[in-house]
């Protein structure tokens, strides 16, 4: 019987150990320039369609059912709960929810199921308005929408999976120092971590 050389055997063991911490159910992704147009504003009621996003595919979608969150301007809604009597909102047919974690993306190691909120006629789970949710509005003369550092959006998806999101920019190509008067806005760039195993609340 042929013996396996010791060197090859050691290489095999080392390669297995190297990958022992890899979890195939966790995805790390960056989304760039997700466009979320909005009509109205400047004293008028916001209107227009929402841009729907599916964490599982990591892309926008036109599906009526396979979406987790949706964007319109600075507003972010979830596929769970009820709407604000806005005829443009997509129908919610999932059990998605959201809350905001104070810290960094790395510091959030697992979700807290007790903190999730859903959209309702009182307001969205991710609150709108400067300083209330994920962004600050600087006002005149800059007129900038800036993500608040240390605000991580935590989502339960429509089908009981979980994702954590760090919004990096609201402007096209995520300029380091955006100009609110010249840079194109309503283009989201964000990092997210997605736990693809249903019911698993851990990101590690």
Query: How large is the share of residues in beta strands?
Result: 25-35%
The number of strands is 13
Q: Report the radius of gyration as a whole number of Å.
A: 20 Å
Number of helices: 1
Tell the overall outline.
globular
Residue runs with pLDDT of under 50 for 5 or more positions: 1-20
Strand numbers in spatial order across the main sheet: 1-13-12-11-8
Would you give an account of this structure?
The chain has one helix spanning 6-18, and strands spanning 26-35, 39-41, 44-47, 51-54, 59-61, 69-72, 75-78, 97-102, 135-137, 145-147, 151-156, 162-171, 185-195. A five-stranded antiparallel sheet has the order 1-13-12-11-8, with no helix packed on it. It has a four-stranded antiparallel sheet with strand order 5-4-6-7, with no helix packed on it. The chain is built from one helix and 13 strands.
């Amino acid at each position: 019987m042929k013996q396996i050389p010791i060197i090859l055997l050691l290489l095999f063991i080392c390669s297995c150990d190297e990958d022992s911490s890899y979890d195939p159910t966790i995805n790390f992704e960056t989304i760039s320039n997700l466009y979320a147009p909005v009509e109205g504003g400047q004293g008028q009621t916001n209107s227009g369609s929402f841009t729907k996003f599916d964490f599982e595919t990591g892309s926008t979608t036109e599906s009526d059912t396979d979406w987790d969150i949706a964007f319109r301007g600075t507003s972010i809604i979830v596929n769970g709960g009820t709407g604000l009597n806005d005829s443009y909102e997509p129908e919610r047919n999932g059990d998605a929810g959201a809350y905001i974690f104070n810290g960094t993306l790395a510091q959030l190691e697992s979700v807290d199921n007790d903190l999730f909120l859903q959209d309702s006629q009182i307001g969205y789970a991710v609150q709108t308005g400067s300083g209330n949710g994920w962004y600050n509005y600087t006002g005149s003369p800059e007129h900038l929408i800036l993500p608040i550092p240390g605000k991580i959006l935590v989502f339960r998806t429509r089908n009981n999976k979980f994702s954590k999101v760090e919004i990096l920019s609201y402007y096209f190509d995520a300029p380091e120092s955006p100009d609110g008067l010249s840079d194109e806005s309503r283009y989201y760039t964000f990092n997210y971590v997605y736990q693809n195993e249903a019911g698993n609340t851990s990101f590690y």
